[in-house]
Amino acid sequence: MHLRLRGEKVEKEVLKQAAEKFGTPIYVYSLPKILSQIELVKSTLEGVNYSLAFAMKANFNQDLLKLFHSLGLMIDCVSIGEYLRARKVGFSPSKIIVNGNCKKREELKLYVDEGIFSINLDSYEELIRLEALANKPVNVCIRVNPDVDAKTDPHIATGLKEHQFGVDYDTAARMIERISKNGNIKLIGLHCHIGSQIVEVEPYEEALNSLKDFVRQMNLNIQVLNIGGGWGIDYGDGKSLNLKDYKKRIVPLLKDFNVKIVLELGRFIVGPAGYLVARVEYVKKTNSKIFVIVDTGMTHLIRPALYGAKHRIIPLYDTLDREETVADVVGPACESSDVIRKTITLPLPREGDLIAIGETGAYGYAMASDYNLIPKPLEIIWDGKMLFRSS
Ligand SMILES: Cc1ncc(COP(=O)(O)O)c(C=O)c1O
Ligand SMILES: N[C@@H](CCCC[NH3+])C(=O)O
Asked: DSSP readout, 69-80?
């Protein structure tokens, strides 16, 4: 059977097959889609001296991590748990970047002992902590907070001075001075991540220009500029990072630095490749509302409850004879916030129908919880030909 990989029709068939075979709820990840996202990164950054790291926080599925490892990607970790998982699936320390504002002493010690690509220092205080235990050479970047508005949802912005991540330029200058006197700590570069789901190029432009000024003022000799992640995807509202603009306006700035550029992309690589497939258990009609109650919700996908995020709801049932209705699609948790989409117009489903929640490959399963002891979904992989259950 020949399958078109990106056609909506085929996707729906695959998702239905997956639900029949494995039950619901399930996350389904499409490998061809992940590969095509990586190709988009490559074509956008053509001519740039760069390394792509996958930001594990978006999705820590081991089969996907093994794929990224086999493709030669680097990996960005934000906790010891992620670090150990990266090691387990085969990443060598030299391919691992560690971020985060709360690295414990024993964790820093492990990173020093194993010799990772870079510890991205999040504070002056962390540098002091590292000095006390760096008994052999260790590479670091300083995470700079450039006080730039990423123009994204305020919940997921990180580059303003009110945010807890990174240091201002004055502090970065003091850290550079201090590092220069240390025999073991080697400053290889700067790091800057201003936020996630960024759909405009201006914030990147602003951040890069301010970093460039800093590098010039300090007469800083760096080998690496890590510009974090943040590339925004289309959640169904037609807004996403315009890659043509990025190529035109950001790529020349990146080349100008004349150093190795590192990107830590999460959402862009896996977000569009994931679907959360659920079954309608009840269609509950009250005097004032219709609730479509499905067997997944905030414990599997917390983004709507946490950020008010809107994900596409894709009917996998035959919609021809169904009346368009306004309803709230809600989950099974004992929380009024367990609403996947409020007042959405959709062809009224029936008990037993399947729906898919789109663009859930990033920050979906990774943020799932055991709340109410509702079992977590299985993760299913579609390799373009076959569906299989992921470990
Ligand atoms: C330091 C850092 N790097 C990379 C990422 C990945 O971001 P995204 O998934 O938006 O590409 C994040 C998350 O926002 C982050 O905090
Ligand atoms: N978890 C967030 C993004 C935060 C990224 C980590 N800094 C989301 O679902 O959009």
From this structure: HHTT-EEEESSH
Give me ligand 1 centre to Cα 153, in Å. Answer: 14
- Give the number of domains in the chain: 2
55, part of any domain: no
Q: What pLDDT does 108 receive?
A: 98
Rounded to the nearest angstrom, the gap between the alpha carbon of residue 46 and the centroid of all alpha carbons in its chain is 22
Average pLDDT score, the chain: 96
- Residue ending a domain, among 248, 265, 282, is 265
Tell me how far apart the alpha carbons of residues 295 and 330 are, in angstroms, rounded to a whole number: 9
Residue 186 is given by DSSP the state E
Residues 6+ apart with CB under 8 A from 129: 103, 105, 108
Shared domain check, 251 and 376: no
- pLDDT confidence tier of residue 153, bands split at 50, 70 and 90: confident
Interior angle at CA 67, CA 5 and CA 78, nearest 5: 120
340 close to 301: Cβ distance less than 8 angstroms: yes
Mean pLDDT of 132-136: 97
Domain final residue pick, 212, 238, 265: 265
Upper half-sphere CA count for residue 358 (Cβ side, 13 Å)? 17
Q: For residue 324, which phi and psi values (nearest 5 degrees)?
A: -70, 130
Residue 379 has pLDDT above 50, yes or no: yes
264 has binding-site annotation: yes
> Does residue 139 sit in the same domain as residue 184?
yes
In a domain, 212, yes or no: yes
On whether both 125 and 185 belong to a single domain, the answer is yes
Residue 380 within a domain: yes
Does residue 314 lie within any of the structural domains?
A: yes
Residue numbers of the domain that contains 97: 92-265
pLDDT at 127 over 50: yes
What's the pLDDT tens digit per position in 283-318?
999 999 999 999 999 999 999 999 999 999 999 999
Is the reported ipTM for this assembly greater than 0.90? yes
User: What count of other Cβ atoms lies within 10 Å of the Cβ of residue 128?
Assistant: 11
- Known binding residue 178? Answer is no
Pocket test for ligand 2, best of 156, 191, 199, 267 (most atoms within 8 A of CB): 156
311 alpha carbon – ligand 2 mean position (Å): 14
Crossing angle, helix 105-114 and helix 80-88, to 10 degrees? 30
